[in-house]
Amino acid sequence: MAIFSKSNVPQFSVDVYQNEYLPEGGREVNAVVTVTATGGGTIGSAVAAPHLYSPGEGPSAAVVLMVDCSGSMDYPPTKMRNARDATAAAVDTLRDGVHFAVVAGTHLAREVYPGEGGLAVAGPDTREQAKQALRKLSAGGGTAIGTWLRRADRLLASADVAIRHGILLTDGRNEHESPEDLKAALDACAGRFTCDARGVGTDWEVKEVTGIASALLGTADIVADPAGLAADFTQMMETAMGKEVADVSLRLWTPAGATVTFVKQVAPTVEELTGRRTEAGPRAGDYPLGSWGDESRDYHLCVEVPPAAVGQEMLAARVSLVIPHSDGSVQNLGAQGLVRAVWTDDLAASTSINPQVAHYTGQAELAEVIQEGLDLRKVGDMDGATAKLGRAVQLASASGNADTAKLLAKVVDVVDAATGTVRLKAKVEEADEMTLETRSTTTVRVKK
Asked: 20 to 30 A Cα–Cα from 206, which one of 26, 112, 316, 434?
């Protein structure tokens, strides 16, 4: 059981944004909860320079890098070379004292370094040994990603550390095991370690890679040009090295008669958490938030409460942050927020939508209509695809999500962004379509 003192843990805070007023008989309460951790190892996307920690300083951590070495990684040959270089760059970014291993993934999972079922401890000598071992990596064989994840899980479990993290690179589809096998592996690994997943080139399956990252509370992205792998791997590892608290959960207590309709992360990406609830005592449930450094994330909660008359008010939900331990104990991180419901006959008060709730409702819809539009385009329903992607352009424009708007403009010709009037492009680069699909859940923060 990892116990964190205040000297080595970011301080957490919770802010609640909502319109607590409901009309007489109203039942649905919405709120956006901003969770912020400060005082950790990262500031935004920046991180303390690697190797400035002495062994034992900072949070204990273990990382396993899983590198696709299937036969397709040889086409073109530069892909395998770039993968070796990227993994070496990530190894260079490891903080001294971090436990680590490298796994070569094919239809099997082979330990490249250090081997023999163990983890090395990062330092000048082990980093150099790992890079020497990486030079021998070659392509050949199939793809069975669930096997890679299970091997990473066994390796990570061998270390008594606070933070366990995986980085996974693939260039192809998971063709040498069934979807059920992959799902079983993800179910087995969920909650045991977090994992960032990257697809290189354009021959991999977006829903597979994003599904891996989602199940393991990590990030997913495309690296269309293998030459960009080293920079991407370095950034991923820097972010991983900035994590200081693992296994944080959002604990949601609701009163008798109230029902949680949904809980979802809405920034920096949309991530559905409702189905991941684990019961935590009478009328309380925990929703996993993964590992944290210095950062801020937003969550949209919706609770259905018993109807009440004008003038009544109630606590609709209490939000807190905890670290549940396997022995049943719980560490409270000392941050709490309250979600209220107040019934009123003031029409203006009860019909006003909180700006944060409105913004993130639109961002969640944006992610949904992009996915629906691209799926319709793939099956040849061009009218349906045009309608959905037009709505996406409208939402991206209205919310100021400029990055998503730029990605959409590579798939559709925008006639009028404000009304969502678009035409599907006759020819779309595969990398552009895959980038839009992979990054469709990325949101823009509301201006508070």
From this structure: 112
